[in-house]
Design goal:
By secondary structure, the protein is an alpha/beta fold. 36% of the residues lie in helices and 17% in strands. The protein has a single domain, classed as Rossmann fold (3-Layer(aba) Sandwich). This is Acetyl esterase.
């Protein structure tokens, strides 16, 4: 079971708002970045850049740069994607991870994206792709190293990270099952290659939901019985292959919202293809507490330090 089967859309919305409130309350006390470092040298910050020409705040992103000068090739760059059950949240809810990475030598681009139920799948996936195109088009301005691009997301953001990462080496026909872009859209050729993906608490497989379960209809449009192809297209596990970039998953063992077995299944699927995937389990931690746990930021840092190698 991916999510509790009896939650309807309104209950999911209430849960999402509760999680956001908890994040806001706890963020001041649990900071994955160094408070002392933050008070010494402000990070170069370029807020509310428009990466996508959509209405409102959905197409905005924040850019944070390290305080050190870039190498000749530029900064390793991480696209950071917030959670919130695809229906709530914004870039500020995951900003501290972005600041933590910037302190460690990475440029970060933290995005808003279009939210369900007003915007259903695959618009959120295309927003992630559009932000990658924007990174490619603004590489010179912000010194992004397009050969060292990583993704980090938590919860729904973790799902979007894994999905875009797993799809990038698939045939265009498969990629278009999770996109509204036409096959001849020039943006496909502008997508930089993702080199590493880190995901916290990610839903990985919607294909195991009961056929008539409608708990994700607000995001996927209907039940799995009525839209089986959509549920498959939206499942990262359906697209794993030997050519996928290395993946690090971080998941709380006591996560009741997104049970850890979805990440275990993804790990096994990746390993069966020969792709690189690691799963870090946080004992006794639930969904929210794993997001807040210092170990999550440490594991993220260790992973990107190996896969993207920032200069210090």
């Amino acid at each position: 079971m991916l999510f509790p089967q009896k939650l309807d859309r309104e209950q999911f919305a209430c849960l999402g708002r509760a999680l956001l409130l908890a994040f806001a309350v706890w963020a001041g006390a649990v900071n994955p970045a160094s408070a002392s470092a933050e008070s010494v040298t402000p990070l170069p910050c370029f807020p509310n850049q428009r990466y996508n020409d959509v209405e409102g705040k959905a197409g905005l992103c924040d850019v944070l740069l390290p305080t050190v000068d870039p190498s000749p090739s530029g900064y390793p760059t991480v696209l950071v994607i917030h959670g919130g059950a695809w229906m709530s949240g914004s870039k500020w809810t995951i900003e501290r991870y972005s600041r933590y990475l910037a302190r460690e030598g990475y440029a970060t681009v933290t995005i808003n994206y279009r939210l369900a139920p007003s915007h259903t799948f695959p618009k959120q996936v295309d927003d992630v792709r559009q932000s990658l195109v924007w990174i490619s088009e603004h590489a010179d301005k912000f010194h992004f190293d397009l050969e060292r691009i990583g993704l980090f997301g938590y919860s729904a953001g973790g799902h979007l990270s894994l999905l875009v990462s797993a799809l990038q080496d698939e045939p265009i026909e498969t990629q278009r099952t999770a996109s509204q872009w036409h096959s001849d859209d020039a943006r496909w050729s502008k997508l930089p290659k993702i080199r590493a993906t880190c995901a916290g608490g990610p839903p990985c497989n919607f294909q195991t939901l009961p056929l008539d379960n409608t708990s994700l209809a607000f995001f996927l449009g209907s039940s799995r019985r009525k839209k089986p192809a959509t549920y498959q297209a939206a499942s990262p596990i359906a697209h794993v292959s030997a050519g996928d970039p290395p993946v690090q998953i971080i998941h709380g063992e006591s996560d009741a919202l997104v049970p850890i077995k979805t990440s275990v299944a993804f790990l096994e699927a990746m390993q069966s293809t020969g792709a690189t995937c690691e799963l870090a389990k946080l004992p006794g931690q639930g969904h929210m507490l794993t997001f807040l746990h210092p170990k999550t930021s440490e594991l993220m840092r260790e992973f990107f330090a190996v896969k993207l190698r920032p200069e210090k």
